[in-house]
Amino acid sequence: MICRFFALPTLVFPFPGFMYTYAMFILRQFQTSSLKSHVRGDSIRRVLAAALNAVEPGAAVRKHLHENPLPGARRTYALGLGKAACAMTQALADEINPTNTLVITKHASPLTVMPATVIEGNHPVPGEASVSAGLAVIEFVSQLTAEDLMVCLISGGGSALMAAPRAPLVDLKSLTSAFLASGARIDEINIVRRHLDLLKGGGVMRFANGARIVNLLLSDVVNDPIEAIASGPTVPDPTTCADAISIIRKYNLLNKIPDSIVASLRETMKPDEPVFASTQTAIIASNNIALLAAQAQARTEGFRADVIHTALQGEATVVGRDIAAQFKELLKTLPRPFCLLAGGESTVTLKGNGKGGRNQELALAAVDVLDGLEDVMFISLATDGEDGSTDAAGAVVTGESAKKAGALGFSTADYLSRNDAYTFFDALDDLIRTGPSGTNVNDLILCFAS
Questions:
Q1: CB neighbours of 345 closer than 8 A, spacing ≥ 6?
Q2: Which of 48, 52, 89, 408, by CA, is between 20 and 30 Å from 293?
């Protein structure tokens, strides 16, 4: 969907102090059964609110611009791409007056900057709207000159939302769906995407006509490699076509995908390309920033708080069991109350036809490990508020979860085998439903012992 917004009113939320209360507004939406009854439920909500608030896109943009003023230019353009593009672009517009603005996102919201074009692309599988977005980007960037500045506000989700595919779109969709079901990491998927798309892997720079580029990135990729965030449309790519083919082979997809995919692979823009001499890039929000904010708030709430992992990856069921087992072991030695925090992004290899997402599946894997433990809570949360293709952001597990499930005749092994964590936690009233949060910095896992 393409929307053109001209000087529409600013969104007003029914709470004073937008930055903090917006995070609290989001978190108040998931009054799960376990959080309602938990003696420290309010404290836990404040910890989660602090994590989201620390990576609120608009605040991150404003903070960076105040500390790093933009260079002067004849004209300044704004290009927003990703799930957080609207909030990031609005924050930029609050500080400057862009000559023109293009935003490509998943959930559009009104902007007070004009003129501005907002396009809703397809996600997580690219579609016709994504291709329309790609064409719009080429037209938008092609108007630049060497005297101009373009500020690129890039966040996760951009890989699917904008596409200029070298292979037929139907084949690209087939490849993306196969990867999403394979258990491949997002950084691996994006390596292949970069070599199949005219705009990814620095490809936008082909059309920039020597303009100066400032990239402000909201990272949704473990360890924050800039070329992996939205498939790096304005930054150089150190990977090769050989890397892409290696990943396709790693997940046994070579004989399962259309022939056009391998035939369409092309090398990307490399770090020694002259066009990158006039670019500046900064990561302004990340999973690690969210973790540190949650840790600080947990300590304020009276918990001992330790960050135990900052780059979690792997199969969701394995990660969930491992974190739960580590938590259970530390219950023997650490004095209560304490909190363990971890961040990253797990993956799911689809074997069943159930409903869920990586955070819900990760939480489901922890249920049996924590069975019978008193006053414990395990939370797995997608910071963008959207876990898989569901309306949930994640789920909550306590020492009572297994007992509640047993009373319903539920077996965790059965639901895991069908990848049906959503149905499991929905019945327990322990799904986290925030709606789209407006940010996107991977996933958070929080373990509380009261």
A1: 185, 186, 220, 221, 222, 312, 313, 358, 442, 443
A2: 89
